[in-house]
Design goal:
Layout (H helix, E strand, L loop, with lengths): L4 E2 L12 E11 L5 E5 L5 E5 L11 E10 L2 E9 L2 H6 L2 H15 L3 H7 L3
Length: 119
Amino acid sequence: MVSRTRVSAKTLGNYINKKVTMIGRVTKISTSRDCIEIDTSEDIKINVSLNEVFEGPLDSIIEVHGTANSKTTISADHYVVFDKEDNADFDQAEYNEFLTIRDFKLGQSVNLREAFSDV
């Protein structure tokens, strides 16, 4: 299994050419539906290239699993669209706060790095 790191838009550039996981709200869908733009809680737009046609609605919350290509682009291996109930309940700002606290703690302990990496 390949491990992935959950990242925020502000830290994406630190993971170029590495496997990442990111959550955001879909704000644009290309006409071919193989590229989307997501907006993060930090008001940063991230472009996501998909290896399949996007099947979700505009304005949905999505979790992207893929490779960071730059500080604003991800090539997705796959994605998960949150259902309507989760979409309504998801607090992007709170999730981002979790990532900030986690990143701070990771800087303090190597064991925590293993605990918070996705596999």
